Amino acid sequence: MREVLQSECVTGDPSPERSAPDKAARVDADKEAAFGFDELFFSRTNASGIIASGNSVFQRVSGYDWNELIGKPHNIIRHPDMPRGVFWTLWNYLKRGEPIGAYVKNRAKDGRYYWVYAIVTPVDGGYLSVRLKPSALLPTVETEYEALLALERQQDLRARDAAEILLERLNRLGFESYDAFMAATLRKEMAARDAQLRTAADPVDARFDDLTAAASSMIERVDDIYAMYRGNALVPLNLKIRAAQLGQAGAPLAAISSNYNVISLEIKDSLDRFYASAKEVLRTIDKGTFQIGVARLQREVADFFRKEASGAQGRAQEEMGLLERQQAAYRDLAVKGLQGIADRVERFADDCAGMKHLASGLEVTRVMGKMESARLSRADDGLDGLMDDLQTFQATIADGLKEVDGFNHRIGDSARHIGRMVGSTGSLGSLGPLRADA
Ligand SMILES: Cc1cc2nc3c(=O)[nH]c(=O)nc-3n(C[C@H](O)[C@H](O)[C@H](O)COP(=O)(O)O)c2cc1C
After folding, report:
1. Atom 22 of ligand 1, residue of closest alpha carbon
2. Is 89 close to ligand 1, i.e. is its CB under 6 Å away?
């Protein structure tokens, strides 16, 4: 049997001591411990992060012997350039029982560095980390980590506070949350790796690109409607002032103004709900996208390890079984994630209908106002201007809603299309059969 895997039952807490790299470390610190885009590796730990097993690529790239790895805390390969905020985020997800994707710079035994994109998921009795070689966003991440580490050192930040700052920095890069960051980066890194390996792109990818683009455009349009609403916040007040100035003749206008005020407040409430609902669509898409990526990567790791361990018995077989079970579990989660998107889109369509209803109420008020302003036009020329503002407001809301509705349909179509790909072929792109027995 080839030496492809080592594992051992280990219990206990991680030892606090950090491994001291060899003297060579100082010499080789700026050199990379190379591995290929075609190589995938994994390691498994117990619940405290003590290494229990891994594959041969993991062992080779780290430069340690198996007996130096098994039973040791995973920080044995921690690189001093890594900000602690990243590890706080990693453990925070894991302790909640959630998977996480993260860029990690590691240090091999001889001091050389290597970057990985790691997907860490909870497994029975601990955690499993599968890793690929990142490239797409690596320069950005290196800059971010460098800046974060500098802040951590200057301000002696606690890990939790550093994690907050990491999130703020990701927000500034356009990622709404860490979930959004890991969904986008996993997909980008897998696509970049496909390109490096000249693997044909998965058709599901294009659909997910469309889903994400439509959801982002939809949020932008909802933002526009919000901005328009805020820009018109004074219209009812101005109408009321005009009505008061007109005295008795302004009574119908005062009624129209208060009617408009009521609808406008309802629109504000509805917009808040609508906005939250649109964001929920985006969050569900991020989650679904990430789960699909995780399932795909785990499948590849399982295939990789199957070849690596062919002919091996005993522990390697057990490990293979674990990888396969993990892959099947995440494949099912990915399918559920897709269903979640379709359900969410339907609920959002209801919210959209509610908004449209309010917008038509606004239109009635506007027409009444227009008639009243025609009647009063000789008495008050300024009214026409106010009514024009109201018309622009109403038209923008109606147009915006139409567009939002269109994007929502597109999202629904894409989710259903992916669902049909699942239904007709019994597979989800490169994820393979949906059930182990299929
Ligand atoms: C499954 C799994 C894999 C991990 N892989 C790495 C890794 O490749 N490199 C690393 O530095 N930390 C890794 N960690 C995190 C370490 O356990 C540890 O939190 C980190 O090295 C920071 O160590 P420190 O708290 O002693 O600074 C992993 C944790 C788990 C659960």
Report:
1. 75
2. no
